[in-house]
Design a protein that fits this description.
Helix content is 5%, strand content 31%. By secondary structure, it is mainly β. It has helices at 213-219, 226-231, and strands at residues 19-20, 23-24, 30-31, 42-46, 53-55, 61-67, 72-77, 82-83, 94-97, 111-113, 117-122, 126-131, 138-144, 166-170, 181-186, 201-206, 234-240. The longest helix is centred in the C-terminal third of the chain and has 7 residues, at 213-219. The protein has 2 domains: 19-56, no CATH class; 76-240, no CATH class. The strands form 5 sheets. A 4-stranded antiparallel β-sheet has the order 6-7-17-10, with no helix packed on it. The radius of gyration is 20 Å and the shape is globular. GO terms for molecular function: polysaccharide binding. Keywords: Signal. It comes from Aegilops tauschii subsp. strangulata. Residues 16-77 form the Wall-associated receptor kinase galacturonan-binding domain.
C-alpha cells in the first residue's frame, strides 16, 4: 500500500498541476506529462467546463475527492443506472459483463471497488446478483418484491429498503478488486409490464446515498424518464494502491 512518506521527495514544480477546479490532485495522482504521476494514476482535467472537471479516464466518471489517508477516490458518475423495463415477461436471466464496460470504468489496476458501496435494486419481483472472481463468486445480491395491493411505497428516514419495492445489499471485496458480472432476472415472468408499479433499476452506489428521501423518491416513480435517470450523478467509492511490481516509474525526484 502506498505510504505518505513515499512522496516526500517528489517535486510537483513546473508542468505538474496539483489542482483541477476545486479538487486537489496529490501524488501519486497527476495531470499532464508522465513524470507527474505514478503509472496508472494519470487523470484528465477538462478545462472546457467552469469550474474544470477532474476525470478518471471516462467522461462519465468525475473525481470529487482523493484521500491519501484512506487510500480512496470518490467519483460521481452519470449513466450509472441500469434500467430493465423491457422483456418483463421473460424468465431468462440477463447478464451484464462489468470488466471493460462503462458500468464502472475501463480497466482495474490500481483501483478496486470499496466495500463502502452497496448494490441497490428497485422494482417489483426483481432480483440482482453481483459476481466477482473466484469460486464462489457471488459478492452481493438481493431481491425486491411488491404486493399488487400496494399503490405506493412509503419513504421514511434512513434505510427503508427491506425487499418491498427496493433492496440494498453490502458488497464484499472481490479477489481481483472489481466485480466481474451482474445478473438480473424477473422473479415473476408472467406479470405484464403495465402491472408493475415501479421502474426496475440496478446500480452500485456509495452507502447512504440511496437512503436520502430526495434520491429514492426521484428514482422510484413510475413515470421516471430514462433520460433524467441517466443524468443522475451516483457517488461510488474506489480504493487505490501503488503496485510495486519491480517497474521503475518515470517520476522526477529532488532532494
Amino acid at each position: 500500500m502506498f505510504q505518505q512518506n513515499d512522496i516526500c521527495c517528489h517535486s510537483l514544480e513546473g508542468t505538474c498541476a496539483t489542482w483541477c477546479g476545486d479538487v486537489e490532485v496529490p501524488y501519486p495522482f497527476g495531470i499532464g506529462p508522465s513524470e507527474c504521476y505514478w503509472p496508472g494514476f494519470n487523470l484528465t482535467c477538462n478545462r472546457d467546463h467552469d469550474p474544470p472537471l477532474l476525470l478518471l479516464g471516462n467522461p462519465d466518471l468525475r473525481v470529487v475527492n482523493i484521500s491519501l489517508a484512506n487510500s480512496t477516490v470518490r467519483i460521481v458518475r452519470t449513466n450509472a443506472l441500469i434500467r430493465r423495463g423491457d422483456n418483463s415477461t421473460s424468465a431468462t436471466p440477463w447478464y451484464w459483463p462489468l470488466i471493460g464496460n462503462p458500468f464502472l470504468f475501463y480497466g482495474e489496476e490500481p483501483y478496486s471497488l470499496s466495500t463502502s458501496n452497496e448494490l441497490v435494486v428497485t422494482g417489483c419481483n426483481t432480483q440482482a446478483m453481483l459476481f466477482g472472481h473466484g469460486d464462489p463468486a457471488i459478492i452481493s445480491g438481493c431481491a425486491s418484491f411488491c404486493s399488487h395491493n400496494d399503490t405506493h411505497i412509503t419513504f421514511g428516514s434512513g434505510k427503508y429498503c427491506y425487499g418491498m419495492g427496493c433492496c440494498q445489499a453490502r458488497i464484499t471485496e472481490s479477489i481481483d478488486g472489481m466485480p466481474k458480472e451482474l445478473l438480473f432476472k424477473w422473479l415473476d415472468a408472467y406479470v405484464a409490464e403495465d402491472l408493475i408499479p415501479l421502474p426496475a433499476f440496478v446500480f452500485i452506489a456509495e452507502e447512504g446515498w440511496f437512503d436520502q428521501k430526495s434520491v429514492a423518491g426521484k428514482l422510484m416513480r413510475k413515470d421516471r424518464e430514462l433520460t433524467s435517470a441517466a443524468a443522475m450523478e451516483v457517488p461510488i467509492l474506489l480504493r487505490w494502491e501503488v503496485l510495486h511490481n519491480g517497474l521503475s516509474p518515470k517520476v522526477s525526484s529532488r532532494p
